[in-house]
Amino acid sequence: MFPAAQMLAFALSGFLRLTMGFDIGLSTKCVAIPAEMGMCHSIGYSEMRLPNLMGHTSMAEVIPKSAEWQHFVQTGCHPHARTFLCSLYAPVCLDTFIHPCRSMCVSVRDSCAPVLLCHGQPWPDSLDCDRFPADEDMCLASLSKEYKYIRKACQTCPAVEEFFTQKRVLDVFCVNNFAVKVKLSKKRTVLGDQEYNIQCQVEFIKQGLLLPYDTRNLIQQWLLINENCTQRMTQTHRPMVYLIVGNIEAGTVLVNQVYRWQKRDSQLTLATRKWKHHKCL
After folding, report:
1. I need a surface site. Which of 5, 83, 91, 220 has the fewest CB within 10 A?
2. Beta 178-188 vs 47-50: how paired, if at all?
3. Given pLDDT bands bounded at 50, 70 and 90, which one contains residue 148?
4. Is residue 180 predicted with pLDDT exceeding 70?
5. Where does this one sit in the cell (predicted)?
6. Hey, what CATH topology would domain 159-277 get?
């Protein structure tokens, strides 16, 4: 039997499916999930087993390997991506190892592999779904097989216009269903990667189907998924303001035009002021 407190924590997370056990036959120990593994915080438990299910025997191995997935999880490519990865890199400290179910792996892989390809990486062999147990075994299953998620993939990079008129900007607004003003910063992480963050609140010029409480997150995910486009946009580490224009298609953001908003750009300011009373042809 699983200890009651640990069993309760996992039951609350909604992922544990009970049938028969599975153990990799290694001598293991329980350790606290370190602060450096931010991806695996607030997942329903605070201790993990070492070695883990990826074969890592020390935190010196686990921390940098798990950190490689941090931005990937933030793309929102699948609602269970974080649970899937943490079950492997930071498995819950129960009496036996609990693998993710094969069905969870397939679901996460099918949704998230296109995002990996956006960054020039195939789905890794180490996460081959055939290595995981079928749903009839004891494993982590998705909350609901009927859960509908929106698959995300990278897009052709939008144009970043440097020279334009207010008429041209208004015409672009007319053929797109949202326009938002964001302040974007860029910094280098401890692993040497670029990290992009939206500072302050998103300002709506044209709201369209975007929701105020979700827009910042959607734009942030777009920046992460389309990192090659984001790199072209942000040519300096100094925070910059951008006007991002696009459409919502099948529940996901498609950015079609980007303007760098600088104080001297009176054409942008005039266009956004006139938009409220502008009539599209």
Report:
1. 5
2. unpaired
3. low
4. yes
5. Secreted
6. OB fold (Dihydrolipoamide Acetyltransferase, E2P) (2.40.50)
One of 3.40.50.10490, 3.40.50.720, 1.10.2000.10, 3.40.50.300 is the CATH number of 4-140, namely 1.10.2000.10
114 in helix, strand or coil? helix
**DSSP structure class, residue 31:** E
Sort strands 139-140 and 178-188 into parallel, antiparallel or unpaired: unpaired
Written as six digits, the tokens of 102 are 């094969």
Domain boundaries, the chain: 4-140, 159-277
Give pLDDT tens digits for 220-276.
989 989 988 888 888 777 888 999 999 988 778 899 999 988 877 688 999 999 998
pLDDT digits (tens, 9 = 90+) for 15-41: 443 333 334 445 779 999 999 999 999
